From TrEMBL:
Response regulatory domain mapped to chain residues: 681-798
Protein's UniProt name: histidine kinase
Main subcellular localisation: membrane
Biological source species: Allopseudospirillum japonicum
Gene3D superfamilies for this protein: 1.10.287.130, 3.40.50.2300, 6.10.340.10, Histidine kinase-like ATPase, C-terminal domain, HPT domain
Bilayer-spanning residue ranges: 177-199
């Protein structure tokens, strides 16, 4: 908004009122003067008309020629009077008798009253005034008592009308207006000049003060105001005060400048000290980072070094467990195996923590069946929970999708750690795993997974330090329960990397609830693994309310009606009613503790239920074969160990209702539930004869019918020629590779679209794994394949309860999704080297372990590798020099696949790194790796030449 200056304000304040008053006075005086002239004219005209009326009335009364002449003479004489314009005479009939002068002006507008009155009346026109005067009969003019009003009651003789011109009055009015305007303008100009002079006396000093202030604003504090030149005392006083303020301001500014100089000097000194400290801190930080890097590398290196002899110990332990041992030897061997497994878990935790600190943990995006993942974790931890008779309950809420996209290995690792802790620190009671939907995003969902126990609980102080590395809630826990204190720290790092958080809710002696959230993707299709329309009613006997709720929720999801009973006696009493149910009773599901399962009364009641033709399923919190067989001999339909997986319970119920009805499963959970079959057929496909021999040997040890194929085309023929239940497919093969073969098998028809095909590969990045699954493969395994992994995959995709007899394979941690690349162990370990130093490129113990404990197979595979190594190296070198990237990758992959089953950890490590770099297309690192590969090849060739003829048996005997 534009503001007015002080000058403008003063001009408006002084000049405008003066102008208005002047004009008002001029108009007022002009108007008053005009009305005064008009009144004077009317008075003079009325006087003249009265005199004329006396004479005219007298002459009209005489009548005659002389009278007419005299009347005309009077009419002409009156025109000589000032401002008289014309004269008219009318008789009593309003007829015109006489007129002298020009015609009268027309009357303007409507006139009030009678135009022919009995008393004098003024009529107005635009240019004149007309006075109409009545004439009455009267006495002679000499009659002194004559007055016109006195004769109103006498006969009227006529009317006399005189017109007076107002021109002279108007002229006088204009002259007066002009004079007033001139006088007003004169007074206004004089007033303005006086006001202007006063304004200048105020404005000019103010402008000067403004310029002084602008100079002060520009840091000219030495300027001063000459106050004696101002005529107005107030402005002079203002100037004096400004000078005093400038003096004070300049003094304070000088003080501030001095203080600033001192502060600047102090600040420079402080900055120099801080710069020195920052340099020292930066050096300390670099030293700390370097020390942390060295620590991480040391931990990773030592962990690899330690895992090498540990794998050998575990491998030889597995071989010994297959031999005949006395009880003491078996106990000692079990202790050795358990200690080795515990140490291996700690080492794996250290490796995971090192990867997290280095930011080298990469997440995969694979389909996950949440219920089966939880069931797998509980099945693994079931023995420890059963020893304490803990109830393990899973509640998966309805709004949670069955399948999501995420990293199953990492989620399994987190859940395993939390459930392990819950089992470890809970003496009695229950453990509840809940999976809920926390939030729904555009393409993702936020899952909340909680593990609640009834253990000892935690204090506030313990909770505050719980997720720190190498820390346990209670120091005594390390002695009583073992553990490294790394599990929760690793869980926290993994959860945060998956976009979630982990927390604990606990009160001392009241149990704990650990929960974490993770972001997972939505599966493109939500296929149902089991037919949700089982027919019938399920009678449930469950003492635990939470377990009862979980079983009820699961059964209703399968379309089963459910009736809950307190005990078996109540079911026996209602047996007749149960037989009449529509839909019919499918089974009686009975949950028993270990103590109840050994009670004679319970056995008797079970027999009675069977005798009443009721199908009975028993859930018992034990895996003891004697107890399970004892319950089976009572005639029950099936005995299942708790915690019972969804798959096993469904299979048992499906047997009672008819043949299992399995719908098309999700991409990585395709299962045909072949547990009812005694024999299954598996096709093994690999272009490497020794790798194929190893896989076939492991499969035949399980009693499986094995068919072999050496390339994709042969595999395509074999699946059509034989009825196979599962295919193990190598990925990279000459001609038709595993991915193309899988796609062609899927195109053969519906049966082949549902056939489980498991990829076998020595190396697979996260993107390659997703590519394999997208191409139609059901699952994948990373070479070398252990017996436990092979058995787990066969059970998962066929439902067959196969086993290796007395095999007790140590569980591979969830964090270890692939077999580690092993380095040569130290000479004082159990690894059997052919040289006394630790520089041997061959680890015989590792090779035997990778060959399923078969010495002859291990020697054949190692000798085949060593015999073909010069030719393989020459082919790789030629492809590298000719820059044939695809050929180079193929040859490196083949060599990598062979090293996976031979005890050559150094060569395997270099080949794996080279294949990774080639797939990532990072050329700067390939040259160094090629040099390292050449060195390792030369080491192995020299070793092979020094040990001709090769005999692992003789080397073992020598050691």
């Amino acid at each position: 908004m534009r503001t007015l200056s002080l000058r403008s304000h003063l001009i408006l304040t002084l000049g405008l009122p003066l102008l208005i008053v002047s004009w008002v006075l001029a108009v007022y005086f002009s108007y008053t003067h005009y009305h005064l002239l008009e009144n004077q004219l009317k008075e003079r005209g009325l006087t003249l008309t009265r005199q004329m009326a006396l004479h005219t009335a007298y002459l009209l009364s005489l009548q005659g020629n002389t009278s007419n002449i005299n009347l005309r003479f009077l009419g002409e004489r009156i025109l000589d009077e000032e401002d008289v314009r014309s004269f008219s005479l009318y008789d009593n009939q309003k007829r015109h008798l006489l007129h002298t002068g020009p015609s009268m002006h027309a009357i303007s507008g409507a006139q009030e009253g009678d135009l022919w009155p009995l008393h004098p009346k003024w009529l107005t026109t635009k240019e004149s005034l007309r006075l109409r005067y009545p004439l009455f009969e009267h006495t002679l003019l000499s009659n002194p008592t004559y007055t016109p009003n006195a004769h109103h009651n006498r006969p009227i003789l006529g009317w006399l009308e005189v017109e007076l011109s107002i021109t002279s009055a108007q002229l006088s009015q204009y002259q007066m207006l002009l004079f007033n305007v001139g006088l007003t303008l004169f007074i206004f100009v004089i007033s303005c000049l006086l006001a202007w002079s006063l304004i200048n006396k105020v404005i000019t000093p103010l402008h000067h003060l403004i310029r002084i202030l602008e100079r002060i604003k520009n840091q000219e504090f030495n300027v001063r105001i000459a106050d004696d030149v101002y005529p107005i005392s107030e402005i002079r006083l203002l100037a004096q005060n400004m000078n005093q303020a400038l003096d004070q301001l300049q003094g304070e500014r000088e003080n501030i400048r001095q203080d600033l100089d001192i502060s600047h000097s102090d600040l420079n000194s402080t900055l120099e000290k801080m710069e020195i400290q920052n340099i020292e801190l930066d050096l300390a930080l670099k030293r700390a980072q370097e020390a942390n890097r060295v620590k991480t590398e040391f931990l990773a290196s030592m962990s690899h070094e330690i895992r090498t002899p540990l794998n050998a110990i575990i491998g030889f332990g597995r071989m010994l467990q297959r031999t005949r041992l006395d009880p003491n030897q078996g106990e000692y061997l079990n202790n050795i195996t358990q200690a080795s497994e515990s140490l291996l878990l700690i080492i794996n935790d250290i490796l995971d923590l090192s990867r997290l600190e280095a930011g080298k943990v990469f997440l995969e995006e694979l389909p996950i069946n949440l219920r089966e993942l939880v069931d797998d974790v509980l099945a693994m931890l079931a023995p420890d929970a059963q020893r304490k008779q803990l109830e393990m309950i899973v509640i998966l809420y309805e709004d949670v999708p069955q399948e999501v996209i995420g990293d199953p290995a990492r989620i399994r690792q987190i859940l395993t750690n939390l459930v392990t802790n819950a089992v470890k620190f809970t003496a009695a009671g229950q453990i509840i795993i809940r999976i809920t939907l926390e939030d729904t995003l555009e393409q993702e969902i936020l899952l909340r997974i909680s593990v609640s126990d009834t253990g000892k609980g935690l204090s506030q102080e313990q909770k505050s330090q719980l997720f720190q590395a190498f820390h346990q809630a209670d120091i005594s826990n390390a002695r009583e329960y073992g553990g490294s204190g790394l599990g929760l720290a690793i869980c926290k790092g993994l959860v945060e990397q998956m976009g979630g958080s982990i927390e604990v809710e606990s009160e001392l002696h009241k149990g704990s609830t650990f929960w974490f959230t993770v972001k997972v993707g939505l599966a493109p299709e939500s296929n149902v693994l089991y037919d949700p329309n089982l027919q019938g009613v399920l009678a449930l006997i469950e003492q635990n309310p939470m377990a009862c709720h979980a079983w009820q929720h699961l059964a209703q999801g399968w379309g089963l009606g459910i009736q809950i009973y307190e005990d078996m006696q109540e079911v026996l009493e209602a047996a007749e009613d149960l037989a009449l149910l529509d839909p019919p009773l499918l089974a009686v599901l009975i949950s028993l503790s270990l103590e109840q399962a050994q009670t004679p009364q319970v056995h008797q009641e079970l027999r009675q239920l069977v005798q009443n033709n009721l199908a009975v399923l028993v859930l018992v919190n034990s895996s003891d074969t004697l107890i399970l067989n004892q319950l089976t001999h009572l005639g029950v339909a099936e005995v299942l160990s708790k915690p019972c997986s969804q798959r096993r319970l469904y299979t048992a119920l499906a047997k009672l209702s008819g043949p299992p009805s399995l719908h098309q499963s999700p991409p990585i959970h395709h299962n045909k539930s072949l547990s009812h079959k005694q024999h299954i057929s598996i096709l093994a496909v690999d272009d490497n004869a020794h790798n194929l021999q190893l896989v076939s040997t492991l499969l035949r040890q399980l009693g499986v019918q094995v068919y072999e194929a050496t390339h994709g085309r042969e595999a395509l023929q074999k699946v059509q020629q034989y009825h196979v239940d599962l295919v193990f497919m190598d990925v990279r093969m000459p001609g038709m590779d595993g991915i193309e073969a899988t796609q062609r098998i899927r195109a053969l028809g519906r049966r082949f679209r549902e056939l489980p095909i498991v990829a076998l590969t020595a190396h697979a990045l996260a993107g390659e794994r997703q590519k394999m699954l997208s191409a139609g493969m059901t699952d994948y395994l990373i070479k070398p394949i252990s017996e436990a992994e092979l058995l787990a995959v066969i059970r998962r995709w066929t439902g067959s309860e196969l086993s290796f007899g007395d095999l007790t394979e140590p569980h591979r941690p969830a964090s270890q999704s692939t077999a580690p690349i092993l380095k040569p162990s130290e000479p004082n370990t159990l690894n059997l080297h052919t040289e006394e130093d630790s520089s041997s490129p061959v680890d015989i113990a590792l090779g035997i372990s990778l060959a399923a404990g078969k010495l002859d197979l291990a020697q054949d595979m190692l000798e085949a590798l060593l015999a073909s190594l010069p030719e393989r190296w020459q082919t790789i070198q030629n492809a590298y020099l000719e820059q044939q990237k695809d050929a180079l990758l193929d040859e490196v992959h083949k060599l990598h696949g062979v090293t996976r089953y031979c005890g050559v950890p150094d060569l395997g490590q270099v080949v794996e790194a080279l294949e990774t770099r080639l797939k990532a297309q990072t050329q700067p690192s390939v040259e160094d790796l090629m040099q390292q590969l050449e060195q390792e090849v030369q080491r192995l060739i020299l070793w092979y030449q020094a040990h001709q003829p090769l005999s692992l048996a003789s080397l073992l005997e020598h050691k």
